[in-house]
Amino acid sequence: MNAVIVGLGSMGFGMGLSLLKGGIETLGVDISKEREAAFREQGGSQTPREEALASADAAVVVVVNAAQSDSVLFGEDGIAARLKPGAVVINSPTVSPAYARETEARLAEMGLLYLDAPISGGSVKAAQGQLSIMASGRPEAFAAARPALDAMAETVFELGDAAGPGSAMKVINQLLAGVHIAAAAEAITFGMTQGVVPAKTVEVISKCAGSSWMFENRGPHIAAGDYTPHSAVEIFVKDLGIVSDIARTARFSAPLTAAALQQFLAAAGAGHGREDDAAVAKIYARNAGLTLPGEE
Amino acid sequence: MNAVIVGLGSMGFGMGLSLLKGGIETLGVDISKEREAAFREQGGSQTPREEALASADAAVVVVVNAAQSDSVLFGEDGIAARLKPGAVVINSPTVSPAYARETEARLAEMGLLYLDAPISGGSVKAAQGQLSIMASGRPEAFAAARPALDAMAETVFELGDAAGPGSAMKVINQLLAGVHIAAAAEAITFGMTQGVVPAKTVEVISKCAGSSWMFENRGPHIAAGDYTPHSAVEIFVKDLGIVSDIARTARFSAPLTAAALQQFLAAAGAGHGREDDAAVAKIYARNAGLTLPGEE
After folding, report:
1. Which of B94, B173, B286 to mutate to test the interface with A (most CBs of A within 10 A)?
2. What is the pairing mode between strands B131-137 and B119-120?
3. Residue A210 is nearest to which of B176, B191, B255, comparing CB atoms?
4. Residue of A289, A89, A200, A136 lying closest to B169 (CA atoms)
5. Class of domain A168-288
6. ipTM of the complex, rounded to two decimals
7. Where do you find CATH 3.40.50.720 in chain B?
8. Which of A24, A242, B75, B210 has the fewest CB atoms below 10 angstroms from its CB?
């Protein structure tokens, strides 16, 4: 199998490495020539772009949102027109189910397959080939994508035989993830008003019914005052925005999503957009006159 | 050791059984004479109330809230005046840290010890002696309570040498638990608007970063349409109310707590107060014109 991977950010670079480890010749494509060179140095294909695209069996798109995905696929230098008939586009960004369905249809008209394949797991798991992928698409799309999926993922949820359900499940996951991060920040700072230090809240609640995957993962960031961006505040401004847009279209009232989005928006507006998403705690702390660990 | 347990509801009855299994002679006290008789039939003490209170080393109070706790301890027929000097009151309801501190002081004036000891774990774990107890109190109170704690709890978090931190941690836990239940309902019903059935959301998200203890526990109730009350909607009306009251006093802005409380209030107002707390999903579904599993 030959593949191209478009988007060599923290997720895409790791996924590209996993493709290489899986024995798949893979060209790395990015807007940054430095990242492209870095990927070649790690064993990436040396084949010129046009030639690699023309021979690729799969194109993995790992960009930030639907607009970038559209640009990569259909823009001026778009890859869809360059892929061979029967190639599969494995699309990873968090997008609306409607976007996934439209893109599947648009690519089908061009003789291309589409796998609706949002990812979960973070950059470390990306590089270890241990992502979770929430996938849906035609059986032919799954078949064409299989070697790449096997190389990149520990778990592939097969959620349906057309695009849409994969993206729907990812959006459901992001609703919960965003609410849980904001809830962790709310609970930890609330505890501070009652004299409970963040480290103690994290230690105890992690073993109690109030815990969540996000509480256990992000709580220690707040307790340590470490906002190194594993996943940034801006990601949840974007993803809870997608949830909100879909909910509005569906006439679905989502009050927790709305409240959490406002907290992430405030964090971004206050200048913390590029920090770890746990920095939403800074809004709670500032609003309550609290001093978080790591602050003066 | 001799003990009395006051409040033989689903938690208290099980905790009383655990005390008996631990070899502690225990009198069960309840406003219901039937429940008192049922506890005696399970091996509870046959000693008359006044005599049992006068000889008890520990009194475990398992009522619903601070008002009931006050009534049990200091009301017309209150137990505090009947306990011997040095006996310890192990207080389990979810109360404010301020209430816990005040009660510790009030009992100290009467020569009694107080352990701030909210519980977590549900009725099954209560009967198996496997609760988590979030405890704080004077070293003498811990020492006096130890045999009873060993009988009732799998895990005792020792959170400080005075009343307050135990209740604070429990309230932090309830903030998260309530928000997570409402978030689970929000996410599962949101998924339904995108064509994803609840059972599939529960299956997939339980293995993803969007999961929480409450999602994994309550999600299946929604998927099965089973609202048998393991813990009722009214419990979170109460507990998120306690969180809100404390937050207001502390001038702490808690938007997720506020949003979740409104959903539980709507569920109670719509007639679901005695159903399982997962019935908060019925508000989301009604507001979006969705039909949940188990509904016509």
Report:
1. B173
2. antiparallel
3. B176
4. A200
5. mainly alpha
6. 0.94
7. 2-162
8. B75
